[in-house]
Amino acid sequence: MNTVKKYISGDVAFKGITLTFALGILVLFIAIIASLWHESLPSIHKFGFSFLSSSAWNPVKDDFGALISIVGTLLSALIAMLIAVPLSIGVALFLAELAPDWMKAPFGTAIELLAAIPSIVYGMWGLFVLAPLMAEYVQPALAEYLGFIPLFTGTIMGIGMLTAGLVLALMILPFIASVTRDVFLMVPNNLKEAAYGMGCTTWEVVRDVMLPYGKKGIAGAIFLGMGRALGETMAITFVIGNTHHLSASLFAPGTSIASTLANEFTEADSDIYLSSLVELGLVLFLITFIVLGLAQLWLKRGQPGGGQ
Amino acid sequence: MILHQRRMLTNRIILTISGAAALLGLVMLIWILGDVAVRGIQAINWDFFTQLPAPPGMEGSGLANAIVGTLLMTFMATLMSVPFGILAGTWLSEFGRESKIGQVIRYFSDILVSAPSIVIGVFVYLIVVRPLGYFSGWAGALSLAIIMLPVVTRTTEEMLKLVPHELREAALALGTPYWKVMVQVIYRAAVTGMITGIMLAVARVAGETAPLLFTAMNSPYWMEGLNEPIANLTVTLFNYAMSPYDDWISMAWGAAFLITTTVLITTIITRLVLHKRSRH
């Protein structure tokens, strides 16, 4: 009797302990949102919803608004996505379907290693290698041929929104590519073989079988990359220029939520300054939460038998 | 025939574009790694590993304290997150596979894996640094641990799920309590995979900067304990790279080289181990 009791109580304790720690992850998540919310309250009370639409950022007068940082975050991520998404789908197709077998392993490993390089190294490389190239060649060329569009006008400095978007694109490209490749690899072989058997070319199989089959998974991969791009700090703090200024030109320096936090958090000398910065952090957390939440949803549904 | 030629042509064009994109990825990797290696190796010498940071222009400057600080904080973060993550992963794999709450926990930890690391830094600042009134190595280690936690949890879960169910049944049939089955059979069967998961998490945080900026901060001195601001490689890299001094920038490349090689070697070893396992 006693042994049976001991037997059962040991397992009950084991289940209870592991469950406690598993629930700990949810508690952690709630604690993050609650503490950010609590610390944002002074700023929320003072500025209300106009915090989100105000372009003010004046530590001397204690007047703060999130608009410039939010625009910078979205814009740099948008540039990154425009460049990285088509390229990474190309890379993923190559790795999953088009490449001869002997090439798949080295290219696949290279892409995965590129995804493992710490973001601060991308940022530093962007500042010392990419930015001078942008100032010397890319931006003058853009200004000359596309200068009639306001996006490509203004002083050429090398750093700025466009360079930040490019560095971000480089950083998320391998990430999206490797997730998309995994989605393509999940397409059942008999579907592809049926199409090939009817005489389809590789591209036709990709377009009419693999892309439709994996479209939710690809959307998930893209959103996962976007979540990374929106929340990335070090890769862009080096090159975005860190000025609170809205400009129509992509050559102009700007700032993002993450880089504002990185630069100003330890300098915040008044309570309302700190509170506004924390509210910026909360906004960033919520934006990425929505984007990553959608990504996870689609990635799960994209798997065969997973949720559909 | 014309249609056939057009289809073949389209096919070849797309194949070329896609191959070019992959090639571009490879070229970028070689370009970035090449730059980091060429500029980094110049800064690395005996002093780099043994001396303290010196003011710009002084000879014999090194990042010994930052190297030790990064190693120590990563180690502490591992100690904090690994038991937590393994227990949470165990529940997900053994008891929470189909349950609603299991799915919710899985969903939120997957989001946490990609959540902005700078927000984790803000969170730890609010709950540790500000109440205590000082930046500290413990706060830095805690924010790294929070970033590692969901990675360790999810890989533990996946690795435990790979252990065949028959193994559990065989042990249970002998009358072994479930917790003993886990400790003496299942963890042993999954240990290689779990260690690789932990190594992946370590590789991930070894290069993290944003969560350390306002938790561990930085310091030019040797530490006397984790209860004070701690020098670390990534924040030092950031400060040095943004400075106007050539010798500091060169040191920053050295730090970048050191971090990148460590992270890449860890990643390669992990991949090799995982690859070998999945072949069996």
Unreliable residue stretches of chain B: none
CATH class of chain A, please?
Mainly Alpha
> Low-confidence parts of chain A lasting 5 or more residues at pLDDT below 50?
304-308
The main sheet of chain A orders its strands as 1-2
The CATH topology name of chain A reads MetI-like fold
Q: Any guess at the CATH architecture of chain A?
A: Orthogonal Bundle
Order of helices and strands of chain B: HHHHHHHHHH
Distance between the termini of chain A: 48 Å
β content of chain B, as a range? under 5%
Q: What helical percentage do the residues of chain B reach?
A: over 70%
The percentage of residues in β strands of chain A lies in under 5%
Fold-level CATH name of the largest domain in chain B: MetI-like fold
Largest interface, chains and sizes: A-B, 87 and 87 residues
Average of per-residue pLDDT values of chain B: 91
Number of DSSP strand runs of chain A = 2
Number of strand segments of chain B: 0
Number of domains of chain B: 2
Short key terms for the protein model shown above:
heterodimer, A: mainly alpha, MetI-like fold, two-stranded antiparallel sheet, about 0% strand, flat, disordered C terminus, B: mainly alpha, 2 domains
Explain what this protein looks like in three dimensions.
The complex is a heterodimer of chains A (about 300) and B (about 280). Chain A has about 300 residues and is mostly helical. Chain A is about 75% helix and about 0% strand. Chain A has a single domain, classed as MetI-like fold (Orthogonal Bundle). Chain A has twelve helices and two strands. Chain A has a two-stranded antiparallel sheet. In chain A, strand 1 (about 55-60) and strand 2 form a beta hairpin. The longest helix of chain A is centred in the N-terminal third of the chain and has 46 residues, at about 1-45. Chain B is mainly α and about 280 residues long. Chain B folds into two domains: about 1-45; about 45-280, MetI-like (MetI-like fold), CATH 1.10.3720.10. Chain B contains ten helices and no strands. In chain B, helix 1 packs across helix 10. Classes of the chains: A mainly alpha (about 300), B mainly alpha (about 280). At the A-B interface, helix 1, helix 3, helix 4, helix 5 and helix 6 of A face helix 1, helix 3, helix 4, helix 5 and helix 6 of B.
